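Field log, afternoon session.

UNIT: design team B
ACTIVITY: writing a sequence onto a fixed backbone
BACKBONE:
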């Protein structure tokens, strides 16, 4: 993570960028907040009860993936209304939707109403789609010289937020507090505070009523396709790698809970261990090794180590081995993500940087829908299969990296 991009901001711009970045982090964390719920160590999990003809596993798969569906719908709505509304109105409206979503999650947990929970989860996904607008404004507020550092910085903190959110969610779900209802209650408060600061600092803006000419649109699409071809490694590496991590985070708690009979507190600590090791790799090992080994080599070797380490998760004879395996997974994966973040510098294609980012977010939405469904679906057969699925995705990332860099 490169702090240089943030430090180059003036005081006035920093007041605006701070709530934008905080909103971005809340959006990323909102997806992972309930991933530990699959392993049933959320207190009084209202989805643990079978309702109607729907099993627990089916309800959990739908509950996790409906966030991605909301994100997809939100991107569509933003694309539809951004020509009529300004950035300020859209960001405030979608942040308000996030707040309402967390309040519905809280209410659904208290009343044990699965339909309310599902609707709340969907609305938090819709609200999280304003990531597109927040990142666009953050790019606009930064001086051109800081852009090569900005995307690695944003993707770096996004990875930490994504990885830490299952730990935060499981920690907040303390039975001595509100149990299942504590995570949405805390995030509702944080979202409300962020909405307040956004309303203070977001500049007033009008919708873009001018439509581009057909020729300009065609040229823009051709340029986008050219960029996508050039940045194949960025899209496919990030997509498959994201899927591997979603699969691992969902299935890991269930796996160690079933295989080693660990209690909920121990599983929570393991999620914290993942996060701490990732930070260690990002802030310490990667900068040190990058001066001696190319980032491409670090990415390929990191992916290879992740595949081996995840395989070891279901081969080792004792849980004490995990003290070595988890750092190997997290630190190696942090090398991969750091390299992917660096490939997000679009160089001469700055003019359509927003368009590239938008396409990536569509990919991201599809991943948030698809990967939880497949992972939890495989759990209904055998938890081991979900871990194998995650490792297949990591292996796919490795094969893509080998093929791309060979060319």
């Amino acid at each position: 993570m490169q702090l240089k991009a943030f430090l180059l901001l003036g005081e006035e711009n920093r007041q605006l960028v701070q709530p934008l970045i905080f909103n971005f982090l809340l959006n990323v964390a909102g997806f992972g907040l309930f991933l530990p719920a699959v392993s049933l160590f959320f207190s009084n999990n209202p989805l643990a009860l079978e309702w109607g003809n729907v099993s627990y596993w089916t309800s959990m798969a739908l509950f996790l993936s409906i966030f991605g569906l909301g994100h997809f719908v939100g991107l569509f709505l933003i694309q539809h209304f951004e020509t009529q509304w300004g950035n300020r109105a859209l960001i405030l409206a979608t942040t308000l939707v996030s707040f309402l979503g967390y309040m519905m999650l809280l209410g659904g947990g208290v009343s044990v109403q699965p339909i309310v929970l599902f609707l709340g989860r969907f609305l938090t996904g819709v609200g999280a789609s304003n990531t597109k607008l927040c990142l666009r404004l953050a790019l606009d507020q930064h001086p051109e010289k800081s852009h090569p550092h900005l995307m690695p910085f944003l993707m770096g903190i996004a990875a930490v937020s994504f990885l830490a959110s299952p730990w935060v969610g499981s920690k907040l779900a303390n039975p001595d507090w509100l149990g299942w209802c504590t995570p949405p209650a805390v995030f509702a408060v944080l979202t409300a505070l962020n909405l307040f600061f956004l309303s203070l600092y977001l500049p007033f803006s009008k919708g873009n009523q001018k439509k581009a000419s057909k020729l300009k649109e065609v040229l823009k699409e051709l340029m986008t396709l050219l960029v996508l071809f050039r940045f194949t490694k960025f899209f496919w590496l990030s997509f498959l790698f994201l899927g591997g991590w979603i699969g691992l985070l969902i299935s890991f708690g269930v796996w160690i809970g079933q295989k080693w009979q660990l209690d909920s507190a121990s599983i929570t600590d393991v999620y914290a261990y993942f996060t701490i090791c990732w930070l260690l790799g990002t802030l310490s090992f990667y900068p040190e090794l990058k001066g001696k080994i190319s980032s491409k080599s670090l990415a390929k070797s990191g992916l290879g180590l992740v595949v081996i380490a995840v395989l070891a998760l279901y081969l080792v004879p004792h849980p004490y081995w995990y003290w070595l395996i988890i750092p190997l997974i997290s630190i190696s994966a942090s090398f991969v993500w750091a390299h992917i973040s660096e490939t997000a510098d679009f160089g001469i294609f700055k003019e359509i940087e927003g368009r590239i980012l938008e396409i990536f977010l569509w990919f991201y939405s599809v991943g948030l829908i698809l990967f939880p469904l497949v992972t939890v679906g495989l759990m209904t057969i055998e938890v081991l299969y979900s871990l194998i699925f995650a490792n297949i995705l990591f292996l796919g990332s490795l094969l893509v990296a080998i093929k791309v860099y060979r060319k």
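LOG NOTE: The longest helix spans residues 232-260.
NEXT ACTIVITY: expression trials, pending approval
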